[in-house]
Amino acid sequence: MHSQHIKRQPRYSIKSLTTPELFQPIRTVATQLSHRIVLAPLTRLRADKAHALGNLAVEYYQQRASAPGTLLITEAATIAAKAGGLDHFPGF
């Protein structure tokens, strides 16, 4: 039996790196960003024993936000003690 090869169009394409959109400015509802790189919510496990953030967390995010036009979505947090379970995890 003879098999035929069907040529399909790719579902994605690779753009040239000479003009990457990642480094182009973009306007959001609230602000103009200098680029399209965003720091997603995360935790650095820098909360105190009561799970509250302090000066160490403030310093961490100030360092990362020092470039104008940078978007940071800061500090993931738990909603209940059962949901976290880690020392120095912020929340509840």
TrEMBL record:
Gene3D superfamilies with a match to the protein in the record: Aldolase class I
Start and end residues of each NADH:flavin oxidoreductase/NADH oxidase N-terminal domain: 21-90
InterPro entries, per the entry: Aldolase_TIM, OxRdtase_FMN_N, Oye-like
GO molecular function, one term: oxidoreductase activity
Pfam families in UniProt: Oxidored_FMN
Highest taxon of source: Eukaryota
Protein name: NADH:flavin oxidoreductase/NADH oxidase N-terminal domain-containing protein
Organism, as annotated: Heliocybe sulcata
